[in-house]
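During the no-cost extension, the postdoctoral fellow (Dr. R.K.) reprocessed legacy sequence entries with the updated structure-token encoder. One reprocessed record is reproduced below for audit purposes.
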Amino acid sequence: MTHPLEDSYDKLGRADEHLESIEGEIKRFLEREPYRVVGQLYPGSPGKLHYIATGKIREQPPRQIKILIGEFCHNLRSSLDNLAYVLATPPSRGDAPDGTEFPIFKDRPKFFRASKKGITDRGSGL
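Re-encoded structure tokens follow.
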């Protein structure tokens, strides 16, 4: 019999692989010195100088970095969804309720949404 959280662990392992790839891609990108900083001194009030630095972009980051970051985030989220499914699965039935997923909300009132009678609304985070 497999561990109930095996799928979550697998997704976390895959996310870790993506993170290593992201770090490697970023390192290779930065080694090419894709930007430079240019600074210049300007006279200010008597006896004071101002140094203004600006960045010059020579090269945009490769799309591969964005793709890997998306896959990394997706695997983290999938791991949380698998965890929520396992936690919501009754031992006697073997199936979690439809729509079970890890709740992520930007809006606090939507997370706590309930009817006037205090019954949790479907789709809330509760």
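Strands lie at 35-43, 49-57. The longest helix spans residues 6-31. The remaining legacy entries will be reprocessed before the final report is submitted.
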